[in-house]
Amino acid sequence: MDYGIHPSKELLQLFKERSFQGQQPEKAKVLILGNDANYSPEISKDPFFQNILDYHSDGVGFWKKTSVHHPFLLPTYPFPKNAGGVPYHRKFSKMGFTSNYAEKFSFIELLNVPTTGNTGSNKTKFYDLMDIEHLEWLEHLIFSGSKKLVLLNKTLSTEITKISKDYRVLKKLNNIISTSNTSPILFEDNNTLLYGGYSFSASISNKYINDLSLDIHSFINSGIKSPKKL
Questions:
Q1: pLDDT score of 181
Q2: Alpha-carbon 176 to chain mean position
């Protein structure tokens, strides 16, 4: 399967209106950064696809209605549960956040379009899909507004370094990544606690997931300034 933009016009329209998942990022306490929102092209031909559209229309409402944060976790999901983005969202769900926390989380990707295929199979196409305006908006979200925890995985850090060099955006974020020698706290000011960790797509232990969950819970519930080092 070739990597590229997802063929669903409905999904593309939703991304034009909401280039994030879950809570509006300006209102969220936790921003989770990713590469792209990737779906099988076949999913748009299945009745289950309505769940995907509902989720992207109102991620907070979807979580509260279904008690799961993403459609991949619904028992009626018709595709393999050990492939695509399913393992990612299963690991996220292991942190134990219920729908009571739905308004706290926003998922934002480097790309502002839904994709299909393996991202790593065509990195040239992945970079070609970059939208400068979206990336500038993303960096503004990270470093402005109310206090928030921003979860940045190590793989994404490598992507940001290349994007910053080639497209001359994400300069502040890249500067922090390239100069930080602490982990997991990469940066902290009055607006942003930048937390370096591992992708939920990676092979991560239950201990890592549990410790990360404790740190995020503490941040959300107590406004703790510096979570413990993992």
A1: 78
A2: 19
* Residue 207 lies inside a defined structural domain of this protein: yes
Count of CB atoms situated within 10 Å of the CB of 205: 9
Is residue 228 domain-resident? Answer: no
* Contact of 134 with 19, CB cutoff 8 Å: yes
Tens digits of residue pLDDT in 104-125: 999 999 999 999 998 878 899 9
CATH of the domain at 26: 3.40.470
**Sequential DSSP letters for the chain:** ---EE-S-HHHHHHHHH-SSEES-TTT-SEEEEES-EE--GGGGGSTTHHHHHHHHH-HHHHHHHHSSSSGGGSTT--S-TTSTTHHHHHHHHTT---GGGGGGEEEEES-SSEEES-GGG-HHHHHHT--HHHHHHHHHHHHSSS-EEEEEEHHHHHHHHHHHHHHS--HHHHHHHHH---SSEEEE-SSEEEEEE--TTS---HHHHHHHHHHHHHHHHH--SSPPP-
Q: Give the pLDDT score at 189.
A: 92
Low-confidence ranges of the chain (pLDDT < 70): 223-230
At 225 the pLDDT is 52
Phi, psi of 151 (to 5 degrees): -95, 115
Number of folded domains in the chain? 1
